[in-house]
Amino acid sequence: MTEPLLSVRDLKTQFFTEDGTVRAVDGISFDVYEGEIVGLVGESGAGKSVATSSILRLVDSPGEIVGGEIEFKGETIFGLEEGDAGELRPRDEMLTETQMRKRIRGREIAIIFQDPMESLNPVFTVGGQLREFIEINRDLDPAEAKEEAIDMLREVGIPAPESRYDEYPHQFSGGMRQRVLIAMALACQPDLIIADEPTTALDVTVEGEILEMVTALQEKYDTSFIWVTHDMSVVAEICDRVNVMYLGEIIEQAEVDDLFYDTKHPYTSALLDSMPRPDKTVDELRPIEGVMPEAINPPSGCRFHSRCPEAREVCREVHPDLRDLSDEGEATHTGACVKHDAFDVGYGDSPAIETETGSGFSAGLTETGGEAE
Amino acid sequence: MSGVGPAESDPDALLQVRDLCKYFDNDSGLLGGVSLGDEFPYVSRSSSDVRAVDGVSFDIKEGETLGLVGESGCGKSTLARTVLRLLEPTSGSVYFQGEDLASLSGEPLRRMRKDMQMIFQDPQSSLDPRMKVGPIVEEPMQAHGMLDEEGREARAKELLEKVGLDPQHYNRYPHAFSGGQRQRVNLARALSVNPDFIVCDEPVSALDVSIQAQVLNTMEELQEEFDLTYLFIAHDLSVIRHISDRVAVMYLGNVVELADKEELFENPKHPYTRALLDAIPVPDPRSGGRDELLSGDVPSPIDPPSGCRFRTRCPKLIQPEAYEMTDETWRSVVRFQRAVKRRAFEETDPDALRSRYFDGGVPSGDAGTLLDEALGHIERDEWDDAEALLTERFADESVCATAKPAYEIESTLSDGRHYAACHLRRDEAVASAVDESALDGAARLGAPEADD
């Protein structure tokens, strides 16, 4: 395979709070190749959004990227080296803040957020905002930029773009606003677009339209996407490869078909089993018991063992890393669960442990009594 | 709407909704609706209503769950609030246990509320952050004078346990709970006065998938234990399919289809239901793509389309009887008319447009002449004229625009009734239903349209 467009290695982002260090992203690695849609799936609190902000170096205090490497098209977005006194310091070739702002964000890597209303300024016209963005990032004069902006609006399916150009964000419906943001993201023809739950707030029919449109535009412009979502159905529809996150870690990585039909990690299976299906009637849902623990004090061993139906004593002690579990000749399929032979830590002989399943919902309150919220 | 109308209404129904309408005044305020003109009288005042719910009828039997599904803005929540009389209905009636809620007021209504409860979408904002969970659950009992203080506390603790929380949490504040747990507190509060009927307005849509499943399971267990009847509103068809016994699909203030769950999902008879089902992504990468997506936005409920409200987006719009085009040509005409309406292209050359929109052949006869005229308008940049011509002579001539559909058809997968408001079902309609409900329905529903 060719060189990846974006390569993330062992990325760690932590938040230093009064209560302790929150390890929001704790050593994740993944690649994005040219022209593919990579999914990043997980429940809320899994660290998906922190991971994507880290890629753009948008993490604010008290958060900080504390380790790992991010390479994009041969350039170092983030990388550390050991200094003379043993301290960690940014490597020389790491892009400066100005370079990030002027060259990378928006031009090379664009991002689409979940709530389009918060990404558009309510006191400027939609067209004006789009035009300004194109003007600055593509060095066009205002008239050309306006023409380009109208073309982009038509491209993403906004009716009567010439007249809608002068309207304000509140005059657009939710789906239309999201289209404007997609137009904005595409306007500079970036190589990578990060879409952070872009369809979660939309109706199914609108979501369907947007997904179709993204697929079509992706083919046309050959843009790569990182698609962040909690919805397995969206993943099934548009992603090529998927990373499943749980509590700051990637616990399974596979091509989309393998993920659904040859699921390796109990968390992924549980997630799939807990969903009601639109295409068939499920008599009983099998929910994942309990709630996701706090990232401030993650469970020992495998982080999912406290909710896992297949947990054994060994899961409490051994922390599984991501290992390749695919058969020879198949596409890479990695998973982090010791039940597979690749780990060989005596899962078979280990006694099963009582998980929260036994105590029902009463184990629900979070350790900190919810004060973290 | 009388396809499920009162003529054959079920005597066992716990709740009967008949022709319920809720209009909102769009021009409230001192200067609302005032417009200035060039001629005398210079200032005019018109009033326009937002028809959020417009002539909805259905029954809910005791112990069943009726799912109500539709896109945002279709009037689901307004319907729910009007049914509970949290909003005053504009017209129509709601019979709960045989009594008409629309005519009740004051103390009798307040006492009636004990039997009907509601659960809201946002579990955070529906709980008072300054009250402890115990008192929150006890408050409805207090309001209805149930039990004494000790009895209420005991019941609150019992209910917390029933909904899957620890009774020890009685003294905690809502902020100490996660979203799913807060929704459980809402459930406990709704159950505290021992209601028969609970309206659930998107109760799980703010929750994570895994938590969603937990709450849905609890709701099902509680329904069995307390013999509850649910009106369950959601925009997520998967959730609706899981929890409902019967499903009503709403579009722009009307119910367009109502049938038993299996029947509706496996044998949808309204193009809107089909489009909705087709639009949902399926959690299966091998499921294949979708056929055809709906285009366009939901029209404004201030001035909804005549006849079938879905006709402006319907992929199956019926050809007016005046023309004799092939089905393919007619589809091209409709596609072209909608494209002109949306100004979806810049091209003005008639030949280029013909080859772009009518690759299956240009209509002949009257239709062909009209189309040429419209293309002429476009060539001269008279977009409004072209739009008006195409809309008036093609779209507005269809039976979908001239008559309001309401048919009851045979269910193939269940023995329940199947109501579908689409003229394509005219020939399949059960004989008795056509006689009495379609005609009756056309007459009754035709009436408000005449005011426009």
UniProtKB/TrEMBL annotation, chain A:
BP terms from Gene Ontology? peptide transport
Q: Which reaction does it catalyse?
A: Ni(2+)(out) + ATP + H2O = Ni(2+)(in) + ADP + phosphate + H(+)
Where is each ABC transporter domain found?
6-272
Q: Where is this region: Disordered?
A: 353-373
Provide the E.C. number(s) assigned to this enzyme: 7.2.2.11
- What are the GO MF terms of this UniProt record? ABC-type nickel transporter activity; ATP binding; ATP hydrolysis activity
Q: What membrane topology does this protein have?
A: Peripheral membrane protein
Q: Any idea where this protein resides? A: Cell membrane
Where is it predominantly found? membrane
Sorted alphabetically, which Pfam families does this protein's record hold? ABC_tran, oligo_HPY
> Which SMART domains is this protein grouped with?
AAA
Gene Ontology cellular-component terms for this entry are:
plasma membrane
Q: Which UniProt keywords apply?
A: ATP-binding, Cell membrane, Ion transport, Membrane, Nucleotide-binding, Translocase, Transport
Assembly and interaction partners: The complex is composed of two ATP-binding proteins (NikD and NikE), two transmembrane proteins (NikB and NikC) and a solute-binding protein (NikA).
Q: What is this protein called?
A: Nickel import system ATP-binding protein NikD
Per the UniProt record, the source organism is Halorubrum coriense DSM 10284
Automatic annotation (TrEMBL), chain B:
The record's annotation in SMART domains points to: AAA
Its Gene Ontology molecular function terms? ATP binding; ATP hydrolysis activity
- Single GO BP term: transmembrane transport
Q: Which CDD domains match?
A: ABC_NikE_OppD_transporters (cd03257)
Query: Which UniProt keywords are given for this protein, alphabetically ordered?
Result: ATP-binding, Nucleotide-binding, Transport
The protein's matches in Pfam families, at most eight in alphabetical order, are given as: ABC_tran, oligo_HPY
Q: List residues traversing the bilayer.
A: none
Gene3D superfamilies reported in the protein's UniProt record:
P-loop containing nucleotide triphosphate hydrolases
What sequence ranges are listed for the domain ABC transporter? 15-277
Q: What is the name listed in the Swiss-Prot or TrEMBL entry for this protein?
A: Oligopeptide/dipeptide ABC transporter ATPase
Lineage of producing organism: Archaea, Methanobacteriati, Methanobacteriota, Stenosarchaea group, Halobacteria
